[in-house]
Design goal:
CATH class of the largest domain: Mainly Alpha
Strand content: under 5%
CATH superfamily of the largest domain: Winged helix-like DNA-binding domain superfamily/Winged helix DNA-binding domain
Order of helices and strands: HHHHHHHEEH
CATH architecture of the largest domain: Orthogonal Bundle
Number of helices: 8
Helix content: over 70%
Shape: elongated
Structural class: mainly alpha
CATH topology of the largest domain: Arc Repressor Mutant, subunit A
Distance between the termini: 62 Å
Number of domains: 2
Length: about 190
C-alpha cells in the first residue's frame, strides 16, 4: 500500500467502472459546489483535488496507470480487513508477546550483566518476520514491559518480570485445577 494514496474515484464519488461522461458530469456538479468562488460551500483544497482527479481519470493513459495503483491499494485494504476479521491473529499475537517476554525473562535470569537480546535475534528465535516483531516490540515497550539497553538490545523491565510471573501463576493455577479434578475423578473410580 502506497502511503499518501489518493482515491480519485472516491473523491469524485463515482465507481471505478464509471465512463468518462459520468466522471465529467459528476466532476462539474462537485466543482460548482467546491469552487473557491462559491461563498457558501467553497473549498479550494478539495476543488484542487477534484481537478487533479478529473484530469487523471479522463486521460486514458493516466487512468490506466492509476487503475493499477487503485487495484493494488484496494487489494491491500481487503487483506487488512481479512486479517482484522481473523480471530486467530489476536491469539497468535498474544502468544508472540508472551514468548518475547519469556525469552527476555530467561535471558535476564541467566545473564543479569548482559540481559538483552537483539531485534534480529528475537526474530530468528521466534521465527517471526522482523516487520511483525516491530509491532509487538512497540506494544511491549509502550506497556513498560521491555526497554532498550544502551547497547541497543532489548531487555525485560521489572513490570515485564511481574507480567511473566503473573502469567505463569495463572497458567500453573489452571493446571493445578485440572490436575486436582483428574485426581478426584481417578480416586472416585
Amino acid at each position: 500500500m502506497k502511503p499518501g494514496f489518493v482515491d480519485h474515484y472516491e473523491q469524485l464519488q463515482v465507481s471505478s467502472n464509471a465512463d468518462q461522461d459520468t466522471i465529467t458530469r459528476v466532476f462539474r456538479h462537485l466543482a460548482k459546489r467546491y469552487h473557491p468562488d462559491n461563498q457558501d460551500t467553497g473549498d479550494a483544497a478539495r476543488f484542487a483535488r477534484l481537478v487533479t482527479g478529473h484530469e487523471i481519470l479522463c486521460d486514458p493513459v493516466q487512468r490506466a496507470s492509476y487503475d493499477v495503483e487503485h487495484k493494488h491499494h484496494w487489494d491491500g485494504q481487503w487483506k487488512l480487513v481479512s486479517e482484522a476479521s481473523d480471530d486467530g491473529v489476536l491469539v497468535d499475537d498474544q502468544e508472540i508477546r508472551t514468548k518475547i517476554l519469556s525469552l527476555l525473562y530467561t535471558q535476564r535470569r541467566r545473564s543479569p550483566r548482559s540481559p538483552g537480546l537483539g531485534d534480529y535475534g528475537l526474530s530468528s528465535l521466534l521465527d517471526v518476520p522482523i516487520e511483525l516483531l516491530e509491532f509487538h516490540l512497540w506494544y511491549l515497550r509502550t506497556k513498560g514491559f521491555i526497554d532498550r539497553e544502551q547497547s541497543g538490545s532489548l531487555s525485560i523491565t521489572v513490570e515485564g518480570v511481574d507480567q511473566v510471573e503473573q502469567l505463569r501463576h495463572s497458567i500453573d493455577s489452571g493446571r493445578l485445577l485440572v490436575l486436582q479434578e483428574h485426581r478426584a475423578a481417578a480416586s472416585d473410580a
